[in-house]
Amino acid sequence: MAIYIVLNNFTDQGIRNIKDTTKRANAIRELAKKFGVITKEIYWTLGSYDIVDIFEAPDDASMAALVANIGAAGNVRTLTLRAFSEADMNGILAKLG
Predict the structure, then answer these.
(1) 42, 28 contact by CB (below 8 A)
(2) How confident is the model at residue 97, as a pLDDT?
(3) C-alpha span between 23 and 45 (Å, rounded)
(4) Taking the domains of the chain in order of start, what are their residue ranges?
(5) DSSP secondary-structure letter at 36?
(6) CA-CA distance, 45 to 76, in Å (whole number)?
(7) What is the pTM of this model?
(8) Is 67 exposed, middle or buried (CB count within 10 Å of its CB: 0-12, 13-18, 19+)?
(9) What is the CATH number that goes with domain 2-94?
(10) How far is C-alpha 94 from the chain's CA centre?
(11) Each residue's pLDDT tens digit, 7-46
Protein backbone atom coordinates (compact mmCIF):
# COMPACT_ATOMS: atom_id res chain seq x y z
CA MET A 1 0.00 0.00 0.00
CA ALA A 2 1.21 3.48 -0.84
CA ILE A 3 1.29 6.43 1.55
CA TYR A 4 -0.24 9.78 0.60
CA ILE A 5 -0.08 13.07 2.45
CA VAL A 6 -2.92 15.48 1.69
CA LEU A 7 -2.50 19.16 2.55
CA ASN A 8 -5.82 20.98 2.94
CA ASN A 9 -6.90 24.59 3.10
CA PHE A 10 -10.40 25.58 4.13
CA THR A 11 -12.58 27.19 1.50
CA ASP A 12 -14.93 30.01 2.49
CA GLN A 13 -17.63 27.37 2.97
CA GLY A 14 -15.34 25.19 5.08
CA ILE A 15 -14.32 27.96 7.44
CA ARG A 16 -17.91 29.21 7.80
CA ASN A 17 -18.79 25.70 8.99
CA ILE A 18 -15.65 25.17 11.08
CA LYS A 19 -17.70 23.75 13.96
CA ASP A 20 -18.39 20.69 11.79
CA THR A 21 -14.76 20.00 10.85
CA THR A 22 -14.33 16.98 13.14
CA LYS A 23 -17.66 15.55 11.94
CA ARG A 24 -16.46 15.98 8.37
CA ALA A 25 -13.21 14.22 9.27
CA ASN A 26 -15.17 11.23 10.55
CA ALA A 27 -17.20 11.21 7.32
CA ILE A 28 -13.94 11.21 5.33
CA ARG A 29 -12.67 8.23 7.32
CA GLU A 30 -15.82 6.32 6.36
CA LEU A 31 -15.68 7.49 2.73
CA ALA A 32 -12.05 6.39 2.46
CA LYS A 33 -13.03 2.83 3.39
CA LYS A 34 -15.32 2.70 0.33
CA PHE A 35 -12.26 3.23 -1.87
CA GLY A 36 -10.09 0.75 0.02
CA VAL A 37 -8.13 3.64 1.56
CA ILE A 38 -7.04 3.65 5.20
CA THR A 39 -7.01 6.96 7.08
CA LYS A 40 -3.83 6.85 9.16
CA GLU A 41 -4.03 10.34 10.72
CA ILE A 42 -5.82 13.66 10.43
CA TYR A 43 -4.20 16.73 11.98
CA TRP A 44 -5.45 20.31 12.23
CA THR A 45 -2.44 22.55 11.81
CA LEU A 46 -1.16 26.09 12.12
CA GLY A 47 0.72 27.69 9.25
CA SER A 48 0.27 27.43 5.49
CA TYR A 49 -2.20 24.54 5.66
CA ASP A 50 -5.25 24.04 7.86
CA ILE A 51 -5.40 20.23 7.85
CA VAL A 52 -2.90 17.48 7.04
CA ASP A 53 -4.19 13.97 6.29
CA ILE A 54 -2.16 10.80 6.00
CA PHE A 55 -3.72 7.97 4.01
CA GLU A 56 -2.66 4.51 2.88
CA ALA A 57 -4.12 3.48 -0.47
CA PRO A 58 -3.80 0.45 -2.75
CA ASP A 59 -3.16 2.60 -5.84
CA ASP A 60 -3.21 6.11 -7.29
CA ALA A 61 -6.67 5.68 -8.79
CA SER A 62 -8.26 4.86 -5.43
CA MET A 63 -6.57 7.85 -3.84
CA ALA A 64 -7.55 10.16 -6.70
CA ALA A 65 -11.18 9.09 -6.37
CA LEU A 66 -11.13 9.81 -2.63
CA VAL A 67 -9.53 13.23 -3.06
CA ALA A 68 -11.98 14.12 -5.84
CA ASN A 69 -14.86 13.28 -3.51
CA ILE A 70 -13.34 15.34 -0.70
CA GLY A 71 -12.89 18.32 -3.02
CA ALA A 72 -16.39 18.00 -4.44
CA ALA A 73 -17.84 18.58 -0.96
CA GLY A 74 -16.50 22.13 -1.21
CA ASN A 75 -15.02 22.52 2.28
CA VAL A 76 -11.32 22.27 1.41
CA ARG A 77 -8.87 22.60 -1.44
CA THR A 78 -6.30 19.82 -1.49
CA LEU A 79 -2.72 19.18 -2.51
CA THR A 80 -1.81 15.49 -2.58
CA LEU A 81 1.72 14.16 -2.17
CA ARG A 82 2.85 10.57 -2.73
CA ALA A 83 5.18 9.69 0.14
CA PHE A 84 7.94 7.07 0.32
CA SER A 85 9.18 5.36 3.47
CA GLU A 86 12.87 4.89 4.14
CA ALA A 87 12.56 1.28 2.97
CA ASP A 88 10.84 2.45 -0.24
CA MET A 89 13.57 5.01 -0.81
CA ASN A 90 16.30 2.42 -0.26
CA GLY A 91 14.66 0.26 -2.94
CA ILE A 92 14.58 3.23 -5.32
CA LEU A 93 18.21 4.06 -4.59
CA ALA A 94 19.23 0.44 -5.21
CA LYS A 95 18.01 0.84 -8.81
CA LEU A 96 20.33 3.76 -9.51
CA GLY A 97 23.16 3.09 -11.94
Answers:
(1) yes
(2) 81
(3) 17
(4) 2-94
(5) T
(6) 14
(7) 0.93
(8) buried
(9) 3.30.70.920
(10) 28
(11) 999 999 999 999 999 999 999 999 999 999 999 999 999 9
